[in-house]
Amino acid sequence: MAILPGAGGALITEKAGTLKWWSPSGTRSIANVPKVDYGGQGGLGDIVLAPDFNTSGMVYLSWVEAGADNTRGAVVASGVLDPGYLAWLHPLKIIWRQAPKVTGRGHFSHRIAFSPDGKYLFVASGERQKFSPAQDLSNNLGKIVRLNLDGTPAPGNPFADKGGISAQIWSYGHRNVLGLQFDAQGRLWDLEHGPAGGDELNLVRPGQNYGWPLVSDGDHYDGKPIPRHATRPDLAAPAISWNPVIAPGDFIFYSGKMWGEWKGQALIAGLKTLGLVRVRIDGEKAIEQARYPLGKRIREIREAGDGSLYVLEDGPGGRLLRLSRK
């Protein structure tokens, strides 16, 4: 979900391939949305307004596309919406692809974030439930990539000297990143699903290895143990991890406009927890502060201009909710 400026409402993606424009006067579908490969965890994904959206109308969108021989992978595209938000003015242009495309329908990630200065595009790329690619710098699976706004590798990336796909990579050793946000200090954080246990909030630094599948604070689904982060101090450890999992949907860093005491804290959409999880940042560590039950799987959270919160429920009959202070 992307909150539009002023009282413009929001753009909302649905996994099966529908893009909706919600406003206080109603909800309408946007035309000319690309065909997505829908199934499992795959389909239409993230939507983010370009840093200069107010003048350009540019929007960035991610989805899963099919490949040859039952393979698939995530893509990111950019396009300009017409002033009424009912269609794209021009066909969407794909600017980045997960590579290689592989079989399966899990761990696409494809979350999008812009650097605070608006110059760079960061994309989370899941390891597609294939484990070892996350440690292989010749592909972009299990990575966070840093790009120019046109999708080309950004200058100064840590593995630029290797060329090719390696030149995109900002960090690696990631599993399935469902949240990607900058804090007020301009630091990049990711929120990712662990296996059976071990969901993580990470402070993301260039060139760092975040350990998957070598280490985790959870274990494999069949019960086979995974070495813990503490056994590998050479790898980047999470700021906080959860076991049992919270199964995060997405998160924001809150401005404090409506709940002043939450300023700078992370508010996390919880699928497993059926509500929101609030986390305080203490330097490079994080401490859970509270949970707020909403009775439904929560997929997405965004902050409106007045500091109120919009959250999306997950699944059939899912609702858009607005939360505000009494």
Features:
about 325 residues; mainly beta; Neuraminidase; 4-stranded antiparallel sheet; 1 helix; about 0% helix
Describe the structure.
The protein has 326 residues and is mainly beta. It folds into 2 domains: 2-233, Neuraminidase; 246-326, no CATH class. Helices cover 1% and strands 41% of the residues. It has 1 helix and 23 strands. The chain has a 4-stranded antiparallel beta sheet, with no helix packed on it. The chain has a 4-stranded antiparallel beta sheet with strand order 5-6-7-8. Strand 2 and strand 3 (18-23) form a beta hairpin. The radius of gyration is 19 Å and the shape is globular. 41% of the residues are buried. The mean pLDDT is 97.
Give the tally of β-strands. 23
Large-scale geometry: globular
- Class based on secondary structure composition and strand pairing: mainly beta
CATH topology of the largest domain: Neuraminidase
Helix proportion range: under 10%
Radius of gyration: 19 Å
User: What is the level 1 CATH name of the largest domain?
Assistant: Mainly Beta
Tally of separate domains = 2
Number of helices: 1
- Oligomer type: single chain
CATH-defined architecture of the largest domain: 6 Propeller
Sheet with the most strands: spatial strand order: 1-2-3-4
Largest sheet: 4 strands, antiparallel
CATH superfamily of the largest domain: TolB, C-terminal domain
Percent of residues in β-strands: 35-45%
Task: Write a short abstract of this structure.
The protein is mostly beta strands and 326 residues long. It contains 1 helix and 23 strands.
